[in-house]
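Q: Structure for this?
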Amino acid sequence: MAVELPDNVVVTKFDKLVSWCRKNSLWPMPYATACCGIELMATGASRHDLARFGAEVFRFSPRQCDLMIVAGRVVMKMLPVLQRIWLQMHEPKWCISMGACASTGGVFDTYSVVQGIDRFLPVDMYVPGCPPRPEQLIQAIIDLQEKIQREGTALGREFDAPQRQRPPRALQEK
Amino acid sequence: MPQNPAIAALKDKFPDLAMSEFRGQTRVVVPRQAIYEFLAALKSQLDFDLLVDVSCVDYLYYRGAKDRFGLIYLLANTRTNERITVRAFVNDPEPAVPSVVSLWEGANWLEREVWDLFGIRFEGHPDLRRIVLPEQFTAHPLRKDYPLQGRGERHNFPVITRAQS
């Protein structure tokens, strides 16, 4: 016997609900050090609006954010600052490494530029480009939202290492 | 150039100058002992009141170079738009020159940058410490015998994993 539910009652798993809430309200902390910061500002501006996807405000305080977007090259003098900001963010938190310089050091293979922040921080999404188009960054946010929904956050599953990665391939049937 | 006779007049006081001109740009090479007096004379008598930049060139692998470091002082006269380049050559064990902070205050950070990247000490500088590199950095990276990728200082940091976050 099926139970008849009225239209305004939703039954779901707690984890899915919490993940849905969190993924649709990612507040970014813009850690813009260089030119990718300009593209980050462009993504938050009116033409490519990042607020459509829940990133309503760019809070500059790490205590109020859950997504850190590292946009631009990080030099070794800046890296302890970056690590401190990361540690000041509350759980659950994610990190997007935007641009070639934050992901791998970019064109700057020199004595002072860190060759990829993923050597020292846990990164969830990499956005290639120099600088990436705003649409690429929006795609990264969407992919991160799918990752959050897939992995779930209510049980702290993002701490499992290695993380289960099943990235959707383009031009393939899901 | 109208100032050239005035600079040529300075040659009487400083006997070892080597002056040259190329396409309207004047360049004077001064021996290291006379650099402070020469710059002071340029400032007081010829009104070069703006120190544009202090820079350095490392001639370690340059063919035919006699000295290792060539210091460059770019001066400008804001009233007559004159520019002049003053060179001084210093050598390797303990390269040092007198500081020109007492003549131009802006030389404070310019000389700190040359100290940081080349290792040339400026005697009489009020606060000679690193300005663009971290304080714990030990080498002088723009010297020619320092590798471009560094000696591992850029990756000498603690790793924060997801579990510790």
